[in-house]
């Protein structure tokens, strides 16, 4: 089957009736770039930079990070490379950066919270990303944003990094786009305000589902309660997209929900055309896109937005998916 799917690598992701989608790759390591290129991803929609910090004994220097980011940016060329700033904490730890035991690490010291607390570490990473922007179509993305202040504080540090690079005579793209992950319910509820503070949104459904439903995404015992198609999640997704559209900024999805081909009609009807996913899922999703129409999308979304439970929605989507291929 994968051999057959591989034939789709050079095919555009266009619906049966002509709507173009942009299917991008999530990467957690440069090792994946070979497959990203082979499968013809339209870019890197989420570069999880944690791996640059892992399996080491100290924080990576600006130069070390720059080399990694530059490599990916160059390989992607004109295609976008969205580099997400460090998202440690929660389940992800670094040996050389001891963090105190927390009762609720997923609600704790993590991601942008660490970056805003350890400004020098953050500035080092931002400087490395800025320098890589001279070699490709690089964008910056902040994880776990819950307020406008966080975006502004992060942008203040970005501004400092730019001034320092200028003084050092390092080239970079001064108008580099800056986006945020929407993955905390508070961010959904103030999406209209956040949209005024950034250049794009990317919806992190992995964490969003966890926080909306109060279901730990790592806890096996309650995995059966982790429901991406829960009506509360679908309503939030719609809110985010509407806020982005109203503000005129792009919105993409980079959580695993984008890799579930059953969700394709929903994104199409919402008006989300950029989907980023693990590279192993990309061609399977593209296959689904090729077999979908705007009429399908409208029908499916209208039905789903009026359903009352995750079970009902999932059953409907599975059935629709199987009978329309
Ligand atoms: C997400 O939360 O949906 C996401 C894409 O980020 P991560 O899985 O790295 O938390
Ligand atoms: Mg996340």
TrEMBL record:
One of its GO terms (cellular component) is cytoplasm. Its cofactor is Mg(2+). GO terms for biological process: phosphoenolpyruvate-dependent sugar phosphotransferase system. It catalyses: L-histidyl-[protein] + phosphoenolpyruvate = N(pros)-phospho-L-histidyl-[protein] + pyruvate. The keyword Transferase applies. The keyword Transport applies. Its main location: cytoplasm. Mg(2+) binds at residues 183, 207. Residues 5-292 form the PEP-utilising enzyme C-terminal domain. Keywords: Cytoplasm, Kinase, Magnesium, Metal-binding, Phosphotransferase system, Pyruvate, Sugar transport, Transferase, Transport. The active site is at residue 254. It is found in: Cytoplasm. Its EC number is 2.7.3.9. Phosphoenolpyruvate binds at residues 48, 84, 206-207, 217. GO terms for molecular function: kinase activity; metal ion binding; phosphoenolpyruvate-protein phosphotransferase activity. Belongs to the PEP-utilizing enzyme family. General (non sugar-specific) component of the phosphoenolpyruvate-dependent sugar phosphotransferase system (sugar PTS). This major carbohydrate active-transport system catalyzes the phosphorylation of incoming sugar substrates concomitantly with their translocation across the cell membrane. Enzyme I transfers the phosphoryl group from phosphoenolpyruvate (PEP) to the phosphoryl carrier protein (HPr). This is Phosphoenolpyruvate-protein phosphotransferase. It comes from Paenibacillus pini JCM 16418. The chain holds residues 251 to 575 of 580 of the full protein.
């Amino acid at each position: 089957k994968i051999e057959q799917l591989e034939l789709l690598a050079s095919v555009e992701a266009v619906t049966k009736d002509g709507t173009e989608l942009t299917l991008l790759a999530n990467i957690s390591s440069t090792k994946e770039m070979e497959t990203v290129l082979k499968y013809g991803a339209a870019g890197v929609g989420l570069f999880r930079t944690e791996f640059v910090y892992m399996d080491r004994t100290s924080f990576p220097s600006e130069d070390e990070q720059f080399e990694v980011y530059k490599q990916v940016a160059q390989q992607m060329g004109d295609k976008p490379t969205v580099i997400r700033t460090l998202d440690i904490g929660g389940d992800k730890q670094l040996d050389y950066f001891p963090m105190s035991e927390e009762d609720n690490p997923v609600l704790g010291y993590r991601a942008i919270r660490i970056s805003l607390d350890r400004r020098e570490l953050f500035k080092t990473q931002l400087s490395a990303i800025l320098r890589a922007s001279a070699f490709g179509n690089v964008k910056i993305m902040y994880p776990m944003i819950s307020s406008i202040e966080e975006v502004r504080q992060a942008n203040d540090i970005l501004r400092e990094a730019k001034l320092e690079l200028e003084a050092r005579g390092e080239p970079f793209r001064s108008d580099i786009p800056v986006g945020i992950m929407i993955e905390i319910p508070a961010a959904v509820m103030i999406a209209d305000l956040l949209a005024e503070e950034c250049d794009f949104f990317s919806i992190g459904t992995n964490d969003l589902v966890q926080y909306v439903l109060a279901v730990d995404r790592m806890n096996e015992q309650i995995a059966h309660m982790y429901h991406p198609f829960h009506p509360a999640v679908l309503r939030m997704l719609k809110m985010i997209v509407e806020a982005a559209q109203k503000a005129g900024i792009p919105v993409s999805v980079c959580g695993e929900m984008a890799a579930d081909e059953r969700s394709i009609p929903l994104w199409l009807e919402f008006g989300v055309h950029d989907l980023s996913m693990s590279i192993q899922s990309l061609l399977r999703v593209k296959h689904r896109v090729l077999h979908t129409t705007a009429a399908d999308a409208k029908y499916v979304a209208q039905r789903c937005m009026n359903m009352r439970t995750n079970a009902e929605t999932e059953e409907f989507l599975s059935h629709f998916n199987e009978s329309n291929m």
